[in-house]
Each structure stands twice: as C-alpha cells, then as structure tokens.
C-alpha cells in the first residue's frame, strides 16, 4: 500500500521555498470576492499572461511533491514576472496526470465567478525546445514534428500557508484541519472558499483530497482556501492513504453556497460537453502557441488530438460524464435545501 500511495502522488519531505529568479511584479495575490486591481490580480489576467508568450527565467524544485513538478519564474507580456508550477506532459501516468490540473480549473468555471475560483489559473503550454533545454538539457521534444515541450502551468500562489503552518501560526484553531468549525462561523471569506473547494473536489471526484492538498492565504476580508493539487481526479481509483485521512471528494461542509448551486442547476449537457475542448494550441511561425482561430475543434472523446496544425486538449467523454453525473446526484439530494446556506 505504501508503494502505491507514493506512486499516486503523496508529497515528499518539504524543502524551503526557493527565491524567484527575478523580482516578482506586484501585486502577487489573486483577487478575492469584491476586490479588484491594483491590490490584486484577477484570475483572468493571470490566465492570459500564462497563455503567453512567456520566457523562462528560472527553474527549481517546488517545496514538496514527487511528480516531476518544477517551480518556474516566468516573464510575460509587458515584462510582468510571476511564478508558476510546471509539470511536463511526459510526467503523466495512468493515475496521475498534469492535464487534470487544467481540467479542474475549467470545471470550477462552470459554477464560480472569477473572484471565487479555488484552483489556481492553469494553462497548457509548449515551450520551444531550445529555450527549455537551457534549464533541462536532456529533455526530448513532445512531438515528432515540432521541437517543443508540452506541459501545464499553474499560477504559484505566493504568501500562502499549508494547513499545518496555518494551525501552528494560530490562523486555524488547535487541532483543526482544513475544516475549522469556529472559523467557518466567524470568517465569511474562509467559509465561502472552503464551501467552493469542497464543491470542486466533489464534482471532479478528487482521488487524493486530504488536507495537504489545500493552502490558505490571508486576504483583507479573511482567510481564503485553495485546492492546489488536482492531478488525481475524474476516475474511481483513489489514493489508498485516504483510508487514514478525511476524504474531501465527499461533501464535508455543513452547507454549500446557494449561488454556486443555482448555477449548477442551470447547466445542461451542452455546457458539460464544452469541457471536451478546454485548450487549443496551433502551429504558428514554427512554434506551438495558445490560439483559438475559427470554430472550436470538436472533441473526439480523448484527452488530446490533432486536427491539421491545431491541438485540442480537454476531458475525455467518460470524465465529462462523471462530472455531470456527480452534479446531478448532488442536485437530487433530498437534503439539498438544508445544505444551501441562507
């Protein structure tokens, strides 16, 4: 069981967070509800920045994790410097897939506004091989017909704490996990973000949803929760270590956000079907870049496929059916009205 748990993504021993390779451009925090620039950045702004073009300024190991992830310092449009967690597509296996970070980011957009998102902005990106090999010299190209390295970039949340660190600092009650009943009553920002986090981990059937997959960030309105590792999801198999931990792929909070539930109630099968095409990249000037031109590519039900010079990435047919079925199951619960907050 221990070996299987390791293969499914349990965190390695924590190491100190490395300094960025260049000074980060402020602000470095995502906007929470009822906030806006210049105090923070919108998720849409970060997503646009990550879509490129971007340049790698530095590559180092993240503080924890065993799936081949790297922490990149990036320079994007207008000289903006940010950091992102990077996992190349080559690190995917049958259970743990970096593509699912992109998928989780997309699923939450079905029922959350930009300032409510609980999984950090994530995009697909293919770095030119010559640039990437400045930092990882032996990396082969992802495709036979173009020299680039495909992977997934998730915005690095600066200034966050793990659950353990938040508990040690007094931001969470002694003995509390990500679920802190006292804070849930007193802090509206924490309450809403934990509710939305649980709703997301439920809908994607997160296969490794324990407290180490959450981080907490102080904001002017309170403590905000995020889900930061979603690469094991959208299938029935789960990390067996969840038998010893609280599994957040079930509904754990005593109430759910009424607005998010109302949005789920208005979704039809066509809305879920759009998850088959989350990201498109196209060949342009010898590079594979994020671009949508003309009619969106139709999904063939697989994780990714080429149509001419365009690459589509999304959820499989089975993954979409799983998300929709879990949404329908939640909406049909006899205690749904009781669950929804007033």
3D structure, described in words:
There is one protein chain. It is built from eleven helices and twelve strands. The longest helix has 16 residues, at 188-203. The protein is of the alpha+beta class. The termini are far apart. The model is unreliable at 1-12 (pLDDT under 50). 26% of the residues lie in helices and 20% in strands. The chain has a five-stranded antiparallel beta sheet, with helices on both faces. The protein has a four-stranded antiparallel beta sheet with strand order 10-9-12-11, with no helix packed on it. A three-stranded antiparallel beta sheet has the order 6-7-8. A hairpin with a 2-residue loop joins strand 7 (214-219) and strand 8 (222-227). The chain has helices at 2-7, 43-50, 99-108, 129-132, 163-169, 181-186, 188-203, 258-265, 269-273, 317-331, 336-339; strands at 55-60, 70-75, 81-88, 122-128, 148-155, 161-162, 214-219, 222-227, 279-284, 287-290, 304-307, 310-313. The chain is globular. It folds into two domains: 2-159 and 279-297 and 309-315, no CATH class; 161-266 and 319-339.
Briefly, what is this?
The protein is an alpha+beta fold. It is 26% helix and 20% strand.
Features:
globular; 4-stranded antiparallel sheet; 20% strand; 5-stranded antiparallel sheet; alpha+beta; 342 residues; 26% helix; 2 domains
């Amino acid at each position: 069981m221990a070996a299987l748990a390791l293969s499914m993504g349990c965190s390695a021993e924590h190491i100190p967070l490395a300094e960025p390779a260049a000074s980060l451009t402020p602000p470095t925090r995502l906007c929470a509800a009822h906030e806006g620039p210049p105090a923070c950045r919108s998720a849409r702004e970060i997503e646009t920045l990550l879509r490129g073009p971007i340049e790698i300024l530095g590559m180092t190991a993240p503080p924890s994790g065993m799936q081949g992830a790297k922490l990149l310092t990036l320079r994007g449009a207008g000289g903006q410097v940010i950091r992102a967690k990077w996992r190349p597509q080559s690190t995917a296996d049958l259970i743990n897939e970096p593509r699912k970070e992109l998928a989780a980011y997309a699923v939450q957009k079905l029922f959350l506004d930009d300032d409510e998102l609980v999984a950090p902005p994530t995009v697909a990106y293919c770095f030119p091989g010559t640039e990437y090999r400045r930092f990882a010299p032996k990396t082969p190209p992802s495709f036979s017909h173009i020299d680039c390295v495909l992977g997934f970039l998730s915005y690095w949340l600066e200034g966050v704490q793990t659950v353990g660190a938040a508990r040690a600092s007094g931001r969470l009650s002694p003995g509390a996990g990500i679920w802190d009943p006292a804070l849930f009553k007193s802090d509206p920002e924490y309450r809403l973000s934990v509710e939305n986090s649980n709703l997301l981990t439920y809908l994607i059937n997160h296969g490794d949803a324990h407290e180490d997959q959450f981080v907490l960030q102080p904001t002017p309105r309170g403590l905000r929760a995020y889900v930061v590792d979603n690469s094991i999801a959208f299938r029935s198999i789960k990390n067996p270590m969840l038998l010893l931990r609280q599994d957040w792929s079930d509904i754990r909070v005593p109430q759910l956000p009424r607005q998010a539930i109302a949005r789920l109630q208005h979704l039809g099968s066509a809305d879920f079907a759009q998850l088959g095409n989350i990201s498109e990249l196209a060949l342009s000037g010898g590079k594979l870049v994020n671009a949508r031109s003309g009619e969106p590519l139709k999904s063939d039900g697989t994780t990714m496929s080429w149509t001419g010079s365009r690459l589509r990435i999304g959820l499989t047919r089975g993954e979409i059916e799983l998300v929709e079925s879990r949404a329908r199951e939640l909406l049909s619960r006899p205690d749904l009205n009781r669950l929804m907050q007033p």
